[in-house]
Amino acid sequence: MTIIASLLRAAELPDSPSARLDAELLLAAALGKTRAFLRTWPERIVSSEAAKAYDGYLQRRRAGEPVAYILGQQGFWTLDLEVASDTLIPRPDTELLVETALALLPATPAKVLDLGTGTGAIALALAIERPAWQVSAVDRVEAAVALAERNRARLKLANVKVLRSHWFAALGAQRFELIISNPPYIAAADPHLAAGDLRFEPASALVSGADGLDDIRTIVSHAPKHLEAGGWLMLEHGYDQAEAVRSLLVVAGFDDVESRVDLGGHQRISLGRLPC
């Protein structure tokens, strides 16, 4: 079977909104080549070993498993990250947190905390853009901590420290100029949890109480004790939660409270500044 004939089997992925892209990524991985190779050599014969691997990948994708979990990697910001089913798959919308953080603080030395780091995506993106920042990345899931540390080590980022902590529990009296988080924020009864990629991602990283705000409440209430005067707290949240999160920030005593819009036009992150 040729490469082009193999790619035509993208039609076997009817439930995917990006069937062709999925097929290209999976076939390139099976061949150990790039997607550009597929276009350059469409008539190249696929070996029996590669065809078998591709068949296995297609079966997993047809069952709904995300391509990122099948391949064990996902791009985020300028990074290629290892991913696994212990953590969420980094998404483009979360890059808004990185963009906003880089605009808030100068490139001079600062201490930054990434809560619920998962793959380490946010912390590592910030660290690679701001070498003078000292970034702490925490997660309560041991496997996630190990994964984030592998990503940190592979990228050789000495200005990131990965440690296990349930939110602020292991941080003592440490204070930061910026605390940033993409915490769980989906309501327990949300029907989206039973559809698409979310079926395969860890519920502990998605679900946060009846209204999806339990973890955000915890972070907002404890963050002032871990922020320097004038420090910022920034949170990703659901598309319809911005008003509620802004209210939580105001009640907790934050100034300059606002929300920012993601690529889809939704208010996706909210932030506030601790008074000086």
Describe the structure in your own words.
The chain starts with a helix and ends with a strand. The protein has 276 residues and is α/β, with parallel strands linked by helices. The model has no long low-confidence stretch (mean pLDDT 92). The chain folds into 2 domains: 62 residues; 188 residues, Rossmann fold, CATH 3.40.50. The chain is elongated and about 65 Å long. Strands 5-4-3-6-7-9-8 form a 7-stranded mixed sheet, with helices on both faces. A two-stranded antiparallel sheet has the order 1-2. It is built from 10 helices and 9 strands. The relative contact order is 0.11.
How do you describe this structure in short?
The protein has helices at 3-7, 19-31, 35-40, 48-62, 67-71, 95-104, 121-129, 142-155, 214-222, 242-251; strands at 73-76, 79-82, 110-115, 133-139, 160-164, 176-181, 227-236, 255-261, 267-273. It has 276 residues and is an alpha/beta fold. The chain has a seven-stranded mixed sheet with strand order 5-4-3-6-7-9-8, with helices on both faces. Strands 1-2 form a two-stranded antiparallel ribbon.
